[in-house]
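Notebook entry, structure prediction.
Reason for the run: the old model in the group folder had no record of what sequence produced it. Starting over properly, with the input documented here first.
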Amino acid sequence: MVKVCALLVLLAVCIIGCAPLRVNLSGSEYQPTPSAANTPKWVASVTVINRAADTELQNHPFSESLIPIKTAISPQSTVESDIKLMLAEVLTIGGAADKSVFVTIRKADAYYTMGAADRIPLVSLATAVRDRDFVMHVVLSLEVRKDGGVVASYPVDREVKIVGKATTRDAISESYQRLIATYRADVLGDIQRNFIDKAL
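New structure, fully documented this time:
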């Protein structure tokens, strides 16, 4: 039974195919609020460190399995690019600024779920077209440093979830587009409101 479950999960992963998905995410780029964009804050430097590992397949025969979404530009790279772009738009480096911003990305996982029933022979055929949970899990820390010490910090540990389809490569791509758009509005908006606007 365990071997059958593992095979079905493997088949689900094969829907994505050997080649990573090429997904256009330009339509949901985060736009800072006008107030922050019009009044950039001065900082001495900005450092973004990406320590997030690739999302791993988590196969659980008797509970939900997590199927990673493999894309040409990884979720980890997308989050790093998003953070750098947002900070570049709302912060200005130079002048007499004595504060620096440090961001460490620790996790940026993107996956969809497969329930235990989806791995039961025959039953899985009936459930193959049902909706799936698509999840983006982002963990990072933001710090303002001055004179070698941390004067403000803000931790982020957020799971963003949407409902989508995983029946074909196109379906997964469309669901991933919506997942990234939701994460950008939620997580990046939170960072701007509760870190950039308050700590800088």
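Summary: The CA atoms of residues 110 and 136 lie 5 Å apart.
The old model has been moved to the deprecated folder.
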